[in-house]
Specification:
- This protein has 140 residues and is of the alpha+beta class.
- The protein has six helices and five strands.
- A hairpin with a 5-residue loop joins strand 3 and strand 4.
């Protein structure tokens, strides 16, 4: 059997999942920090997130130009990667007085906690290698 069969869907590894303590502020009954469950997304899902974070802005002569909001995109990627807690839960959103997973994340987490979570989500989705490292690998 050739190595080509490793590229078929049934042979590909499933989405990467990982548990990660985002904040020590969320504790169980014993006082231990509760880990969040994270999962990688597909490129197809990533394209949908990019599209959702791109708005058409009216420019000169009435022409609409696409404008990409990177902060919105990153928040959407984090929201799509968090499996637990369920950020889409209406009761959880209501407890923070917000609607939507991205708004909930911004309200739940401190800035540093959000940044650490974002870095973990990016690594889980394959953004953990420096582009210069990849160029060197390709050269060799």
């Amino acid at each position: 059997m050739s190595e080509f069969s490793a590229f078929f869907a049934q042979a590909a590894a499933v989405a990467a999942t990982e548990e990660f303590v985002v904040s020590k502020r969320f504790k169980d009954k014993e006082g231990n920090p509760i880990p969040w469950k994270l999962s990688s997304i597909t490129e197809e899902e990533n394209q949908e997130l990019r599209k959702a974070a791109t708005k058409k802005v009216k420019g000169r002569n009435g022409v609409y130009n696409p404008e990409f909001d990177s902060n919105d995109y990153l928040a959407k990627m984090v929201g799509a990667s968090v499996v637990y807690p369920n950020l889409k839960d209406a009761e959880l959103q209501k407890s923070y007085g917000v609607r939507g997973a991205e708004s909930l994340l911004r309200k739940m987490l401190l800035p540093g906690e959000f940044t650490v979570l974002l870095e973990k989500v990016q690594a889980l989705n394959g953004y953990d290698q420096d582009i210069n490292e990849l160029v060197e690998e390709v050269k060799n």
